Amino acid sequence: MKKTIYILILALCLGGCEDFLDREPTDILVDEQVWSDPELIRSFLANLYGRMQHFSGFDDGTRVQIIDTDDAMWSAHINEDGRTNNRQQYNYDFRGIWAYPLIRDLNIFIENIQATDLLSEEEKSSFLAEGRFLRAYIYFLEVRSMGGVPLVLESYDYDGTQDVSEYRVPRSTEAGIYDFIASEMDAVKDDLPQDGTSRTRANRWTALALKSRSMLYAGAIARYNNLMDAPITTPGGEVGIPADRAEDYYRQSLEASLEIIGEGPYDLYNNNADKQENFYEALVNKNSPEVIWAYDYSQDGKTHKFTFYNIPRSLREAPDNSSGTAPSLHLVETYDYLNGDEGELRTMNSAGDDYVYYDHPEDIFAGKDPRLWGTVIYPGAAFRGEKVSIQAGVLAWNGSSYDMASSNKLGDTYSDGGLMVGLDGPLPSIGFNTNTGFYIRKHLDTRTGSGNQGDGSDVWWVRFRLGEILLNAAEASFELGDEATALKYINRLRVRAGFPENSLTELSLEKIAEERQVELAFEDHRWWDLKRWRLSHVFYDGDPDSDIAKIKALWPYRVVRPDDPAKHNKYVFIRRNAPRFGSPMYFRLGNYYSKIPQNAINANPLLVPNPFH
């Protein structure tokens, strides 16, 4: 049997094909075997879907996605602080994607699915559209990190005798890649399933969701890159999008969003009258009507370790891990109060000369946006029916001031017999407990056993959901000058959260950014949002006094003051730098576009390097 070996020319590869050990054994086959068997064709497509998880999700990248923004820090192994909590600068290749081995296999699939006569015309048309959708999705992941990339839409037969230079492909413009994504989604949406029955395979609405997101990114880059003092561009347009393209991109994004909102089979999750629980369930409930496209681990008989890595210490089910993600005070205070007040927590009285005293640690968060509870475990909040014990120490009154007492042992007691340090910290001298005073809740699995390394969790990774689409529609409307429509869509999300109707009456980019941060926290949006708005270097400026670039903590203390019953055994909170967080985040201009792999440039002189690299 003749073996046909497909390659995408070496000049485009990162340094070899993806590890075929990641594939199912049946996929390591010569082409004649695959394309002569309908079941193997279906397996090929399933394998392509599964490989999307290499770039986002719970498999191996979630810690990076979560802790390399101002949303959180690393709080597990102390010996990893230097790598995870010292962000003096981000490497230029950070979060870069050069996925040409996968693109090669997608091209092989697309070419062969058109030639096969083993499938029904309906299935053949749908499979072809799915392949093109997945290819466009990968190009979106590439363009948002690299800028314009080589647009390769065919595979190549290579037997070692051809001149490799014949296959070298230059980078497309950044706008050209975004235009390709839009045109592909327009071309395939009618050939994809038209209902929303499957939440794990592409359909009309996933295609529109990709267009909604990608066109919003393109519009923001066209607008905000050109508002910089020195826009980041290359002469050939590989980086940078002309400012006059912004309005068209925003309009395309809005149109795609409105079709999903108005005609799609999706709705915001509102199954639980408890607004806090409701928001948490919106992502983890696999019957959620909000989810458009997700990767369901259980569908492939898999689990992941997100709960194992991040469950609060006192609830951990394995002795060798927990507490990995510690949300920041900045994130917590981005959640407003339901009465309309901004989200700053009240730790000091109005005169600024004494603490605010709370009966219970959780009382300081009373009246906050319920999405906070659905995202973060704060002091006194419960998980799996157990209150999480977060307390940094005791403030004991000495007659004129407070003496601070703590311990090097979690769960230790003070001389009065009361708790001194919580079972869940914060205690920075040891690992595996919160460093900021908070734990993550979003994505954690409530199922007993899911925190074991062997069992794992099957909570799915949601790529697109209606909540994001509403925010995309709001932002695009705002950028097109229609503030009323923008407010309508943001207020719809806020009503679901528990705010009254029309709680927002005016809008700004800053408020849009806040709403995206609180609604989409820990869903891998923050890094990319700040980049496309060209705010990353502004927020992550390396300033050690910054409340954003330097992760801040909020630590609760129990007050011991027997002579004052109004304060004795109450709780106060102290703001501070998170002690295990090293240098403040410093985002360089060269981080707006990730570095192209040097071996790819060496092999293909047509690849123009990105600015500052």
Care to give the gist of this entry?
The chain has 613 residues and is an alpha+beta fold.
Your description of this structure?
This protein is α+β, with helices and mostly antiparallel strands. It has three domains: 1-55 and 97-172, no CATH class; 174-302 and 458-534, Serine Threonine Protein Phosphatase 5, Tetratricopeptide repeat; 307-457 and 537-584, no CATH class. Helix content is 34%, strand content 9%. The protein is built from 19 helices and 14 strands. It has helices at 31-34, 38-50, 62-67, 81-84, 100-115, 121-146, 174-188, 204-224, 246-263, 275-284, 306-310, 329-334, 370-375, 466-479, 483-497, 509-520, 526-532, 536-539, 598-603, and strands spanning 6-7, 72-74, 156-157, 291-295, 325-327, 376-377, 382-383, 386-387, 393-397, 402-405, 439-440, 461-465, 552-560, 571-577. The strands form six sheets. Strands 10-9-13-14 form a four-stranded mixed beta sheet, with no helix packed on it. A hairpin with a 2-residue loop joins strand 7 (382-383) and strand 8 (386-387). Helix 6 packs antiparallel against helix 7 and helix 14 runs antiparallel to helix 15 (483-497). It is globular, with a radius of gyration of 26 Å. It starts with 5 loop residues before the first strand and ends in a 10-residue tail after the last helix. The relative contact order is 0.14. Mean pLDDT is 92; it is low at 1-29.
